[in-house]
Amino acid sequence: MVRKSLENGSLYIKNDVLAMIASICAEDMEGVTIVSGFKDGVSGILHRNFHKNGITVIEEEEEISLEVKIAIEYGLEIKKTCELLQQAILHEIKSMTGISLSNLTIKVEGLTNSHALATT
């Protein structure tokens, strides 16, 4: 949970909210799908990180990092797509919460082929 000081008190933002913002950014990006697995939950228990549907929120002292696991549609430029997704997530989290992430890692875990699905 992230704590931000306000003029007359404090604001607490659950890690769920950060993961949700990142997830919505990924859903809005054409050709990108969030991927997750059983290993995410086990790793979260062992390392005390927060995992939600392929998104990991990592809290270390005063820093917050995110790791986002995705699949990209075959044919898209992977580096450019990841850079655009990274910019979108950083911007949305900053504008909505005032939080500047210390690190945002995008992990491409697979490819999708939506053209094959559309023709079947």
Structure write-up:
The protein has 120 residues and is an alpha+beta fold. Helices cover 42% and strands 36% of the residues. The chain has helices at residues 15-28, 38-47, 78-97, 114-119; strands at residues 2-6, 9-13, 32-34, 50-52, 55-60, 63-73, 103-112. Helix 3 links the parallel strand 6 (63-73) and strand 7 (103-112). The termini are far apart. The model is unreliable at 40-48 (pLDDT under 50).
Write down the CATH class.
Answer: Alpha Beta
Mean pLDDT: 85
The CATH topology label is: Alpha-Beta Plaits
* Count of the separate structural domains: 1
Report the strand count: 7
CATH-scheme architecture: 2-Layer Sandwich
| Overall form | elongated
Largest sheet descriptor: 5 strands, mixed
By secondary-structure content and strand pairing, the structural class works out as alpha+beta
Number of discrete helical segments: 4
- Beta percentage is 35-45%
Radius of gyration: 16 Å
Helicity, as a percent range = 40-55%
Question: Ends: how far apart?
Answer: 44 Å
Catalogue the unreliable spans: 40-48
SSE order in H/E notation?
EEHEHEEEHEH
